[in-house]
């Protein structure tokens, strides 16, 4: 009897595995098609300068738009894209699309810096410098309007590959942000060795502002670190006014989160700016001709 039960359970386990496996290959196939057919869209979330209340830039966030209109969030397909290598053509697409959009906005009198997330696995086998400079060249975007977001892990994994590439990009005018700061490796050494423009405090700390003195202490330490190293700091994941007030009391100068605006299509971003819900900085006055 025990033997039968065992076999039964084993057979069941086997079937479940097979089902999981075929679901994974189905997703992989669908994702491969999606890359081929460019079934992706970028949504843009505003980043706010807290002193002026103006939009200093936007973060581009990828979504998979199924032909039936269903929108799939990156948490559900990025891990597979990274495993299968589909992340490479996907990144080529997202870099080019974000640069094209930012160049278009600039033409339309809406100059906005765009931040693109780059997966750390790209540095294992690919020339990130080439991927980025190709997108810039193809779209004609002023590199000063492009920012790249990398996680600590991405940088620490391959410092000898990442460092010269990022330095070359920074020299062109591209800026580099460390995303999800505070959750990766604890080594802070790289902050002084790499051309880092901005630290983005992970939303996990922001979420706990009202409940964890540990998180409050870490946020204060990151703000002090940025100030002392001359690196800007932005807080992400702000959903409520009390979180914003506390961050302002700590002299945090930049913020992003649903409180200010969710990631939206380029059309909706444009509409939010046109109706004044989001405000662009006043244009810097042109310098008078030195006659
Ligand atoms: P991330 O770069 O840390 O992006 C922030 C995520 O938090 C986004 O999720 C955003 O929609 C969400 N978020 C923003 N404000 C709030 C808030 O106030 N509350 C809450 N609860 N969430 C907020 P999303 O769009 O699902 O992206 C998840 C992650 O996927 C991103 O995390 C990024 O690591 C990655 N990702 C997104 N687009 C791309 C891309 O084009 N390429 C690569 N390699 N990764 C991407
Ligand atoms: Mg990001
Ligand atoms: Mg983040
Ligand atoms: Mg993240």
From TrEMBL:
<protein>
    <submittedName>
        <fullName>EAL domain-containing protein</fullName>
    </submittedName>
</protein>
<feature type="domain" description="EAL">
    <location>
        <begin position="24"/>
        <end position="277"/>
    </location>
</feature>
């Amino acid at each position: 009897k025990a033997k039968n039960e065992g076999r039964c359970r084993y057979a069941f386990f086997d079937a479940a595995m097979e089902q999981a496996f075929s679901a994974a290959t189905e997703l992989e196939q669908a994702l491969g098609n999606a890359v081929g057919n460019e079934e992706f869209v970028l949504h843009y979330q505003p980043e706010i300068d807290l002193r002026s209340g103006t939009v200093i830039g936007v973060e581009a966030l990828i979504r998979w738009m199924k032909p039936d209109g269903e929108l799939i969030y990156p948490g559900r397909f990025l891990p597979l894209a990274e495993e299968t290598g589909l992340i490479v053509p996907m990144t080529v697409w997202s870099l080019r699309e974000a640069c094209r959009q930012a160049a278009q906005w600039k033409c339309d009198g809406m100059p906005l810096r765009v931040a693109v997330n780059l997966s750390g696995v790209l540095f294992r086998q690919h020339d990130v410098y080439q991927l980025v400079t190709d997108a810039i060249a193809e779209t004609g975007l002023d590199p000063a309007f492009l920012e790249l977001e990398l996680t600590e892990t991405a940088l620490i994994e391959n410092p000898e590959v990442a460092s010269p590439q990022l330095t070359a990009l920074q020299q062109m005018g591209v800026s580099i942000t460390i995303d999800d700061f505070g959750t990766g490796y604890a080594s802070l050494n790289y902050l002084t060795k790499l051309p880092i423009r901005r630290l983005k405090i992970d939303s996990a700390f922001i979420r706990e502002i009202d409940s964890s003195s540990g998180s409050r202490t870490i946020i204060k330490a990151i703000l002090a670190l940025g100030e002392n190293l001359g690196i800007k700091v932005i807080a992400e994941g702000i959903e409520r006014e009390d979180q914003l007030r506390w961050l302002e009391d700590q002299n945090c100068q930049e913020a992003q989160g649903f409180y200010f605006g969710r990631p939206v299509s380029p059309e909706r971003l444009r509409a939010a700016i046109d109706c004044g819900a989001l405000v662009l900085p006043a244009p810097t006055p042109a310098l008078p001709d030195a006659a």
